[in-house]
Design brief:
The protein is an alpha/beta fold. It has 10 helices and 9 strands. It has a 7-stranded parallel sheet, sandwiched between helices. α1 links the parallel β1 and β2. α1 crosses α9, α5 runs parallel beside α6 and α9 crosses α10. The chain is globular. About 3% of the residues have low confidence.
Amino acid sequence: MSKKKIVVCGGNGFLGSRICKSAAARSWHIVSLSRSGAPTWSSVTSSPTAPDWASAVQWEKADVLKPATYQAFLEGADAVVHSMGILLEADYKGVLTGKESLVGGLRRAFSATKGGSDRNPLERGREDGAGDGEGGGEIRSAEPDGQITYELMNRDSAITLAQESSFANVPSFVYISAAAGAPMLPKRYITTKREAESTIASSLPRLRSVFIRPGFLYDSSRSFTMPIAFAGSAGNMVNSLVGGMLTPLAGAAVEKPLKADLVAEAVVEAIADEGVKGVVGTQRIEDLANVGWRRGML
């Protein structure tokens, strides 16, 4: 199998770093893009020091909202991965941490709509001096206070990155989506992800787009994820016994939790297997990971 180049936007995060690890095991050329560069290892692994595989990754600083900071890294890439997003918006976090009033914060957090970017990501102008096929300008929050919303990060940043990938003639684009929403999250968390999937699939047909939809991700290096995963597994078993009747009500809360390393391996195998396209749900994620691990044993 030929050596591939992949660009992982959000490569220093919980899942993104594991995608880099899985790609490094295949001796691929890996570029990680994030605003801070290399990870703070204690936040993504059980050790404060960089693992051996980290030296195989090109850790670069870039801003997903500012294409000019990452366009050069897309050149010659076989695949680009969007592994960024927000689970809680700032105002929702503010309520949970006591920094915002309960009524005001929750009203804003659970509002039906919020501003995404200050322009349609697919209609970004060329005022930055870029020519045809060379990409467009940056996107900014449309919220008066500049808040990073689900619309901006989960949807518009992904569409922008996918469009820039298409401009750079990158053949494959992987978007880390989600299996479903959850009762404790605003509905916009999942609707913005679905809007991103739909727009990328319909508006950027030159890309082989893959939409990874895992449930809750866990790993022993993040001890707080283990009891949540245990509860999720129990909920998934109950949901299976009642024929999936709980899914419309509980969403991701009853989806089978997946180990982060398993999802990462599935992402890398999906990139390697050019027959994979479109939505990839829980069972397909597990199947792809198993294929990848068996390949590594040969």
